[in-house]
Amino acid sequence: MRRLLLAALATALAGCPDSTTAPYAQLYAITAVPPGSVASIVTNRDDARFQVSLSVGVAIGARCSDYCPGTRTTCASMRVTSDDPGVLDVRSVYRGGRQPTESILVAKKVGTTTLVVDTACATEVYTVDVLPRP
Amino acid sequence: MLRLLAVLSLAAAACSDGFGTGGTPGDFNQVQATPECGVLSQACIGQGLNAPIARGSTVDLIVEYRVAGSSGPPIELASANEAVLRPISATQLAALDEGMSAVLFTGPDGEVIDLVHVFVQKPGELRVNRYDAQGDLLGRVQPSSQLLPGDEVLIAVEAYANGQPLLGRYELAYATTDPAAVQILEDPVFGLYRVIARRPGSAKLSFAALGLDVAWDVEVLP
């Protein structure tokens, strides 16, 4: 009985979110990369590296995930904005209805800009490199 | 036997995605895009939108939507890289420069319903291909040919790059050095031409498009 209680306690503790984790928001790619192209979203909180790299002409779908203590919704009130839509355009997605946690990132012109992901409790800023094709 | 038929019909149903055949599905599988083929059959019928597009040409798209609970909206196209590919009408793209660009199929509010990536390539050669009356490819014509009076050959002059057929429509200039011996007529179907042997003699047929040219020597025997 004591072993059972200990096991239940350990399971419960492992399943609980880390109360020290700060709120965060992040993007990840949900569509394919065309041949001979670069399309990556790097989210590395340990190294504070938030990087979007796309070959010019590429459009990829990106989905948001976040951690907001005390909430159960994912990426509530998400807004994804580009500092320079001439370099990186951001469009909303219609996929069986409008998808509030998804965006299309469109690499329009070679250059550098920033992409801001805002949710109800967190903000993340990605550096964006739109690269020339080889 | 009935069980076998049931299994076969289930298998066939599983293979169908509800779209027509031959099109290129978008990343979200809500749009299938097929180039309107006309006659550029080598690239168009063989590979559809999976073939690169010839720089300097245009492509007319047939866009088929599969949006749950809705008919397809009016077609609107957008390009990720307008230096490479630019929409020039609701269903037509102009290939402006070599490279790659996503084509976005958007809804009335600009939201993206689906997308495909397409390549634009500089053509390296024109080939004269012969087709039968049904539009099926018979093969590439030889540099010089012999015909008999009354012979009629259906051809298309198509763009290739490194042996790969390229997609696209373009204006073709054509000429014959002796139209009394060998005449070239435009077929009512865009891109097809009829080469007609009229009377004995020789003619050099020349074709030019996309900055390239190709010649075909034809001798009409008595």
Q: How would you describe this structure to a colleague?
A:
The complex is a heterodimer of chains A (134) and B (222). With 134 residues, chain A is mainly β. Chain A has a single domain, classed as Immunoglobulin-like (Sandwich). Chain A has one helix spanning 2-15; strands at residues 24-29, 39-44, 49-55, 59-67, 79-82, 88-94, 98-107, 111-118, 123-131. Chain A has a 5-stranded mixed β-sheet, with no helix packed on it. Chain A has a 4-stranded antiparallel β-sheet with strand order 1-4-7-6, with no helix packed on it. The termini of chain A are far apart. Chain B folds into 2 domains: 21-121, Immunoglobulin-like; 125-220, Immunoglobulin-like, CATH 2.60.40. Chain B is built from 2 helices and 19 strands. Chain B has helices at residues 2-15, 41-47, and strands spanning 24-25, 31-35, 53-54, 58-65, 77-79, 85-89, 92-95, 99-106, 112-121, 125-131, 137-140, 144-147, 152-161, 164-165, 173-176, 182-186, 193-197, 201-209, 212-220. In chain B, strands 10, 11, 13, 14, 16 and 17 form a 6-stranded antiparallel β-sheet that branches. In chain B, strands 1-2-4-7-6 form a 5-stranded antiparallel β-sheet, with no helix packed on it. The longest helix of chain B has 14 residues, at 2-15. Chains A and B meet through strand 6 and strand 7 of A and strand 8 and strand 9 of B.
In short:
Chain A is mainly β and 134 residues long.
Give the topology, please.
The complex is a heterodimer of chains A (134) and B (222).
Chain A: H1 2-15, E1 24-29, E2 39-44, E3 49-55, E4 59-67, E5 79-82, E6 88-94, E7 98-107, E8 111-118, E9 123-131
Parallel strand pairs in A: 3-9
Antiparallel strand pairs in A: 1-4, 2-3, 4-7, 5-8, 6-7, 8-9
Chain B: H1 2-15, E1 24-25, E2 31-35, H2 41-47, E3 53-54, E4 58-65, E5 77-79, E6 85-89, E7 92-95, E8 99-106, E9 112-121, E10 125-131, E11 137-140, E12 144-147, E13 152-161, E14 164-165, E15 173-176, E16 182-186, E17 193-197, E18 201-209, E19 212-220
Parallel strand pairs in B: 3-9, 12-19
Antiparallel strand pairs in B: 1-2, 2-4, 4-7, 5-8, 6-7, 8-9, 10-11, 10-13, 13-14, 13-17, 15-18, 16-17, 18-19
